[in-house]
Amino acid sequence: TPQLQQPQTASQPFIPQAPPLLPNFNTRQNYSDQQIKILNNGLQDQPLYTGNETVFELQFTGQPEKIQWFRNEIEIVNSPQQSNNRIYHVTNQTNGITRLIIKPTLDEDVGTYSVKLSGPNEEITSAKLMPAAQFQNLQKKKVEQTQRKALVEELAEKQLNRMKPSKNVAPRTSYTSYGTSDDDVFYEP
Q1: Residue limits of the Immunoglobulin I-set domain (predicted)?
Q2: Fewer CB atoms inside 10 Å of the end CB: C or N, the chain?
């Protein structure tokens, strides 16, 4: 297509046409935004209740290119041919949530479940599916440990408070000096 140029006149100098703008190459997100980070301490252990649904959920940030779930280090692959998968995983990249759903849960599902997020970096987190009684005992021990730790901290704080003077020592105002220290020699009542 021929470009039309305005005829030059004495009152208007010739202005060359600007070159086309270069495309913006900064359309991708910043690299730090793509870094994968696991939130809320990763996967949490779950109790096994036979016949019920069990859900392992992981929240993350970043842009994982691949998300893989494992049971006892064997990959769990969603099979689209089977419409009645008992164990399957779903991911919502927009919200940064991936879930492994076991429905219904059977006694044989006990084990360690892991999720691996791969992309600019790699993150892995694991949790156990264990019999409900074992899970409850473990939770009880965690509560006892937390209470024990809080008690130790409380006792340490009380010990520190005992070492502090109970009354505030007021600064001297008008004591007579007996020359017991350099400060007292120069102190005038």
Answers
A1: 43-120
A2: N
Q: Are strands 122-131 and 46-48 parallel, antiparallel or unpaired?
A: parallel
Say if residues 133 and 47 touch (Cβ distance below 8 Å): no
CA-nearest of 123, 128, 111, 130 to 68 is 123
Under CATH, to which class is 31-131 assigned? mainly beta
For 170-184, b/e burial (b = at least 16 CB within 10 A) is eeeeeeeeeeeeeee
In angstroms, what is the C-alpha Rg of the chain?
35
In the chain, what are the domain boundaries? 31-131
C-alpha 180/C-alpha 177 separation (Å) is 8
Backbone phi, psi, residue 141, to 5°: -65, -40
Q: pLDDT per residue over 96-153, tens digit each?
A: 999 999 999 999 999 999 999 999 899 999 999 999 999 899 889 988 998 999 999 9
Which residues is 55 bridged to in the sheet?
101
pTM assigned to the model: 0.60
The token duo for 136 is 């409850």
- 19-61 pLDDT tens trace: 766 655 544 444 556 799 999 999 999 999 999 999 999 999 9
